[in-house]
Design goal:
By secondary structure, the chain is α/β, with parallel strands linked by helices. About 35% of the residues lie in helices and about 30% in strands. It has 2 domains: about 60 residues, Signal recognition particle alu RNA binding heterodimer, srp9/1, CATH 3.30.720; about 90 residues, 2,3-Dihydroxybiphenyl 1,2-Dioxygenase, domain 1.
Length: about 150
């Protein structure tokens, strides 16, 4: 048995797969399947170890923040890279490290240190970090660290 995300596109599954593969360097195509209906196809690919299936069909249903893909980053350089790459060509910044890419898929670009800080047993420090994060779109680690230190 396997469990993996399945994304539904309006004829852009191949384009989305190639875009994501250009962003995540450790990625690969797993399968391309043409279905009997010429307007339908399925691609399966892997991004940094996560398998994803994508369907080409005539979906008019938009993605929303109830489902997102989280990219956990190690430092500001990596955070900036994924943020900038995923909003390229029409993506949109959202609050608190969230964004939508040019296909409307929701992503969170989250530095590991943010997760550690908001889990700190010192609730005052954790709260200051949360308040700082609420004011951000792209996460800026230096600003989080200042908030954490007080």
């Amino acid at each position: 048995m396997h469990i993996y995300p399945h994304l539904w596109f309006n004829g852009q599954a191949e384009e989305a797969m190639e875009f994501y593969r250009s962003v995540f360097k450790t990625s690969k195509v797993l399968q391309r399947t043409e279905l009997p209906d010429p307007e339908l196809s399925v691609v399966r690919f892997e991004l940094s170890g996560l398998q994803i299936a994508a369907l080409n069909a005539n979906s008019k249903v938009p993605y929303n923040e109830a489902f997102s893909l989280l990219v956990e980053t190690g430092d500001q350089e990596e955070t900036d890279y994924y943020w900038n790459a995923l909003i390229a060509d029409g993506g949109k910044e959202q609050p608190c490290g969230w964004l939508t890419d040019k296909f409307g898929v929701y992503w969170q670009v989250t530095p590991t240190i943010l997760l550690k800080m908001i889990a700190d047993p010192d609730k005052v420090k954790a709260s200051r970090v949360m308040q700082a994060m609420y004011k951000m779109k792209k996460i800026v680690i230096a600003d989080l660290e200042r908030a954490y230190q007080g």
